[in-house]
Amino acid sequence: MSSSSTTTTTTRLLMLKASDGVTFEVEEAVATKLGAINNMVEEEGSEDLICLPNVNGKFLGMVLEWCKKHANNNTNSDKGNDEVNKWWDKEFVMDLDQNTLYHLLMAADYLSGTELVDLLTEKVASMIRGKKVEEIRETFKIKSDFLPGQEEEIRKKNSWAFE
Amino acid sequence: TLICLLQPTEPEDFDEGNTIEVDRISALPETLIHHILSFVPTLDVVRMSLLSRRWRHMWRSVPLDQRRNDMLNVTDTSVTSFKLDIKFYPFNITTIDHWLNLATHRSKVKELDLCIRTEVPRKSYYSHHDLFTLNSFTSLKLCGMTFNSLHSLSFPSLISLSLENVRLDDQFRTRALSFWKSFMGIISQLLRLKLLQSFVYNGGPFYCDLNLSSCETLTHLSLSNLKFENEWLEDLVYELPLLESLSLWNCNYLLSDFSMTATNMLQVNVKLHNPRSHAMQWYFNLLDFLINLDCSRSLSLHIHSEEALILPSKFRRVCRSPLPTLKHLKVWTDCLLSSNSGLRDALLWIAPSLETLSIERPESLSV
């Protein structure tokens, strides 16, 4: 009996419950990739069910998928894994639509997943860099709500940026 | 057991069919937008001000420590006016250094406005690099900076100069009195500028022997927190024939025994010193002082209490009005005004030819 008890203490499971009631059972090491969860685990200690009313199950699932990948890869930290991680991250954000990107970013921010926020904001930035204003408007469906003349005024005021 | 992270928000509609044309990025909280913009070249960020009203000022609000330091190309080209208004903390010294470098090296900046705010008076930003390798400035406004030296100054094109809480290194200060001598000497040297039209100086409450006599073109002069001899100011005003505007804030006690002639004076602003009591001597001095200001078209007086200007009626019977030709008078006060104090009557006696009279107090005291 005494020999088996040593192996069962290593992984603790946490239950995460999303706003729509969907629950996820994840290893503590995975969930604590998220700063907010990590804080709660450290503070509360014994709590096993964590309710996340600001995150929908679909996006919580994606966030946890990301955590899982990165938690696993952290355990064996050789250089090759870094490359695998980067490749995986690239795939992860490649085909995200606006809606998913938005909710994922909000979820990652809410859960203090710093690295994931970095990844997602960088993804958004990559859709902005070097683009013309018209192109950015088109990509993000931004509607111009300037009053007549206002746009011209901005151009004039910061003419150095628009030359 | 069950625990919840924060309060739930409104339930959201995640139906992708409905959201395909929705502008999501503009709905992000500002902190996340700033985070995104920290990965975007500054020039692109500025251009994004044309997206919509939400984005118009976004580029300005990105915190300095999150901005990309890639403005060099911009300053190389056509920026002629540079303004930095920043709070000083020990941890943002390198950021400030960086921005000053951009503004002053290989740039065409002509107007430089640096305000580095500090809440601890003894700890102000110490300029490590030589700001003054450029001599193309026409306008220089410095606030809250410490320099190790202001030597080798040369600003032949300077038209406007403003120095507020600008100090030399504390090491010099420990050499006691000679510090102020050298500081004033350096400023005086700085002021040997033939084109200077505007000079604003806010020092500590220190004795002043600034030599401004070579600034014959000066039209605007503002001095705060300075102590000086009356003769110094008399001479100064005499030597500045083009002076149109003079401001004295928290300088000397009332300038009694003082005379001033300034033919071109349009505007005088004075913050009167707060006397311990409004005894007879105060009113004598006040009259003496005001007589000199009749040369100006317009006068602003800042007072601590209305009592300071309400001359007793026996004065009014005996004396002549000190400002017989003044046209415009504005009185500012920190205190609450009583409606029937007689301030208005007193002011109309002081300046009987007024066309406009306004009595104002700060917003916060308005009822």
Automatic annotation (TrEMBL), chain A:
GO molecular function, one term: kinase activity
Domain SKP1 component POZ: 14-72
Keyword Transferase: yes
Keywords of the record: Kinase, Transferase, Ubl conjugation pathway
Domain SKP1 component dimerisation span(s) in chain numbering: 115-161
Stored InterPro entries: SKP1, SKP1-like, SKP1-like_dim_sf, SKP1/BTB/POZ_sf, Skp1_comp_dimer, Skp1_comp_POZ
Gene3D superfamilies (UniProt xref): Potassium Channel Kv1.1, Chain A (3.30.710.10)
Subunit structure: Part of a SCF (SKP1-cullin-F-box) protein ligase complex.
Name of this chain's protein: SKP1-like protein
UniProtKB/TrEMBL annotation, chain B:
Cross-referenced Pfam families: F-box
SMART domains membership: FBOX
Domain F-box residues, every copy: 22-71
PANTHER family: F-BOX/RNI SUPERFAMILY PROTEIN-RELATED, SUPERFAMILY PROTEIN, PUTATIVE-RELATED
Name listed for the protein in its UniProt record: F-box domain containing protein
Taxonomic source organism: Trema orientale (Charcoal tree)
